[in-house]
Amino acid sequence: MTGPRTALVTCRPGPQISADRDLPVLVRALEEAGARASAEVWDDDGVDWGSFDLVLIRSTWDYSWRADEFTAWAERCGGVTRLANPPAVVRWNTDKRYLGDLAAAGVPTVPTRYVAPGEPAGLPDGHEYVVKPTSGAGARFAARYGPDEHATAVRQLERMHAEGFTAMVQPYVRGIDTAGERALQFFGGRLLHASRKGAVLTPGTPYDARKVAHPGLERWTPTPAELAVAERALAVVPDASALLYARVDLVDGEDGRPQVMELELVEPNLFLWLHPESVPRVVEAVLAAAVR
């Protein structure tokens, strides 16, 4: 086999880590297309990242526990080979304060306030809200609160601040309960496919409980309005032309129009098991990036 050597990067298994159903499928598909592909663990000191033509971040789903360590790895890796997505994008996207950049650029986003360690909670009155960390994945340390649950929310903030996390506070977007959350996947600069899932956060679920990250996931055809918002968000990304992949998560605001919930540019689940017809397109884009 003489094709480009490609590493698909994952993390070590653990009790809080979901299995990546797509990883073996993608490794096999790349090998069948002529590439030399292997799954590698990002914090394995024995991996020679410079020996690969392309390092593709896939399921590094423990990075939010160790964000500084992970971004440092991305910088080192990007210094010796081509990393997708690039280190600058990884660094920008691992901190959800990027939502402020999107909002400042006029992209419809879920209203967000940030509470750093030492700052007053200032929790909302009169409506449901969500508290979660600016560095997080899989709804880790995220919870939904009603107006009468401020004491519990404050305890969550205190725990997060003690662990060094900055919190983000958002109104609970009620449209999720009816229209769900839509995930638009892009690969190689084009829309790949889209999916929809139900609400992740249910009332009364503790912030430190493990959540079902993608309940009721199903195939979805994005509307023109959803596609337009997603493309506006991607245009704000630093060095957007260097993106190999992206996932834009959308919900409906109080006006019924789509707005960005999150922009996943580091390790988005592609849900290829739900969209098997997308595998050849992903392989084509990865091979093209590996020989660029």
Mean model confidence by pLDDT: 93
Helix-strand sequence: EHEEHEHHEEEHEHEEEHEEH
Structural category is: alpha+beta
Runs with pLDDT <50, length 5+? none
How many extended strands?
13
Estimate the helix proportion, in percent. 25-40%
Describe the largest sheet: 5 strands, antiparallel
Strand order of the largest sheet: 11-10-9-12-13
**Cα-to-Cα separation, first versus last residue:** 19 Å
Shape: globular
Radius of gyration: 19 Å
Q: How large is the count of helical segments?
A: 8
β-sheet strand percentage: 15-25%
Oligomerization state: single chain
SSE blueprint and pairings:
Blueprint: E1 5-10, H1 23-32, E2 36-41, E3 54-59, H2 67-80, E4 82-84, H3 87-93, H4 98-104, E5 113-115, E6 129-133, E7 143-145, H5 150-162, E8 167-171, H6 175-179, E9 181-187, E10 190-197, E11 218-219, H7 224-236, E12 245-252, E13 258-264, H8 279-290
Parallel strand pairs: 1-2, 1-3, 3-4
Antiparallel strand pairs: 5-8, 6-7, 6-8, 9-10, 9-12, 10-11, 12-13
Helix pairs in contact: 1-8, 2-3
Would you write up a description of this structure?
- The relative contact order is 0.17.
- Strand 12 (245-252) and strand 13 form a beta hairpin.
- By secondary structure, the chain is of the alpha+beta class.
- It has helices spanning 23-32, 67-80, 87-93, 98-104, 150-162, 175-179, 224-236, 279-290; strands at residues 5-10, 36-41, 54-59, 82-84, 113-115, 129-133, 143-145, 167-171, 181-187, 190-197, 218-219, 245-252, 258-264.
- It is built from eight helices and 13 strands.
Gist?
By secondary structure, this protein is α+β, with helices and mostly antiparallel strands. The protein contains 8 helices and 13 strands. The strands form 3 sheets. Strands 11-10-9-12-13 form a 5-stranded antiparallel beta sheet. Strands 2-1-3-4 form a 4-stranded parallel beta sheet, sandwiched between helices. Strands 5-8-6-7 form a 4-stranded antiparallel beta sheet, covered by helices on one side.
